[in-house]
From TrEMBL:
GO molecular function, one term: pectate lyase activity
Keywords attached to this entry: Carbohydrate metabolism, Lyase, Polysaccharide degradation, Secreted, Signal
Cell compartment(s), UniProt: Secreted
One Pfam short name: Pectate_lyase_4
Span of domain Pectate lyase: 68-302
Signal peptide: 1-26
Full protein name: Pectate lyase
Tagged with keyword Lyase: yes
PANTHER family, per the entry: PECTATE LYASE 18-RELATED, PECTATE LYASE 21-RELATED
Family membership noted in the UniProt record: Belongs to the polysaccharide lyase 1 family.
InterPro entries noted in UniProt: Pec_lyase, Pectin_lyas_fold, Pectin_lyase_fold/virulence, PEL
The organism of origin for this protein: Flavobacterium agrisoli
Recorded GO CC terms: extracellular region
């Protein structure tokens, strides 16, 4: 009898244990957080305040720490900013106020550096000419953090000019809580073997009307983000491992949100609501893209499948008042990292509240 009673109690304990597991699982599901990769709940990345955590592809290849806890150099003028960027011994740059960039700044051949803004910090270009446009050009750099800055251009004008910012052959870059607006050629482009890049809580928008009549041929060049400059740049194969997490392609964006060649690009928990859009995510030559738990609202062609793409896997997305294609095709890569993932139903509120230069300074983490 004693043995039978023990067995009964054991069986009852098992039933209660399973019931508790079911209740906990349901609570997690309803909280608005789901997992994309199998191990995403085991190794959560990029909590706010934890400087050791980096989300997405920038967490790979040794990680991305920028300038770490090095002594800050404060800048508030163009001359000070240019000097601090060009000085390889300066590892953390703190930007204050509005700085008008009179000539595009070259940020080259450096490693282990952070540039961030205090609340309201803004880098501005007013030049729409082919040679004079653009704010900053990153080339041959590694281990950079760019945080809490507004990059403001003079408006789109197709003169084959420059982007607000460009990554050229850069590795391990984390762009966090920034806003890119009104770039002449593009807002923020990534090219030439750049790799292990994460863009998080960043807003892309056009507030100024496009200028027509440029030599490039497009009368409306509000093309926000280009990844890979040409189909002929086959040396880019195996690179462009990029994560866009909790980003906002907002008013005025017409195309390239982003437009991808060659890369393994993960677009997750982002919000697309530009009513002037012609197409949003464009999969070009050998593009391998995951589109997970995003919200597309009032846009045209959320997923544009161009000739020669490899795969687009689209899961858990919400499409509201959209037109055009919403489906992927073939099976895209599986990310090697884990990342905190919102249910798509929670994305709009989170992004509209948090994307852009919404921090007060160099706050570590994002999620």
């Amino acid at each position: 009898m004693k043995m039978k009673n023990k067995l009964k109690f054991f069986a009852l304990a098992l039933v209660l244990s399973f019931a508790n597991c079911t209740t906990e699982d349901a609570a997690v599901e309803q909280s608005g957080t789901t997992a994309v990769s199998e191990n995403s709940t085991a190794n959560v990345t990029a909590k706010v305040g934890d400087c050791s955590q980096v989300p997405g592809w920038a967490s790979q290849n040794g990680g991305t720490k920028g300038g770490g806890t090095a002594t800050e150099t404060a800048v508030s003028t163009y001359a000070q900013l240019k000097s601090a960027i060009e000085n390889t011994s300066v590892k953390v740059i703190k930007v204050s106020g509005t700085i008008t960039v009179s000539a595009r700044i070259s940020f080259q051949n450096q490693s282990g550096k952070t540039i961030y803004g205090v609340k309201g910090a803004k880098l501005v270009s007013t030049n729409q000419t082919k040679d004079g446009s653009g704010i900053i050009y990153f080339k041959n750099c590694k281990n950079l953090i760019i945080r809490n800055l507004i990059f403001e251009g003079p408006g789109a004008y197709d003169t084959d000019g420059w982007d607000n910012a460009t990554l050229d052959n850069c590795q391990n870059v984390w762009v966090d809580h920034c806003e890119f607006r009104d770039g002449v050629d593009g807002n923020f482009d990534i090219k030439n073997k750049s790799n292990y890049v994460t863009v998080s809580y960043t807003k892309f928008t056009y507030l100024k009307a496009p200028k027509a009549g440029g030599s490039g041929g497009s009368d409306d060049h509000r093309y926000s983000n280009l990844i890979g400059s040409s189909d002929s740049a086959t040396g880019d194969r195996g690179t462009f491992k990029i994560t866009f997490a909790r980003c906002w392609w907002a008013s005025g964006c017409r195309e390239r949100m982003p437009r991808v060649r060659f890369g393994q690009v993960h677009i997750i928990n982002s919000y697309f609501n530009s009513t002037v859009s012609n197409k949003c995510i464009s999969a070009g030559l050998e593009a391998n893209i995951r589109v997970d738990n995003n919200v597309f609202e009032g846009v045209k062609n959320p997923i544009d499948l161009l000739s020669g793409y490899t795969a687009v896997t689209a899961t858990g997305n919400i499409f509201t008042s959209t037109s055009g294609n919403t489906a992927g095709k073939n099976t895209a890569f599986k990310p090697p990292y884990s990342i905190v993932t919102l249910a798509a139903s929670a994305v709009k509120a989170d992004i509209t509240a948090g994307a852009g230069a919404t921090f007060s300074g160099n706050t570590c983490g994002s999620f």
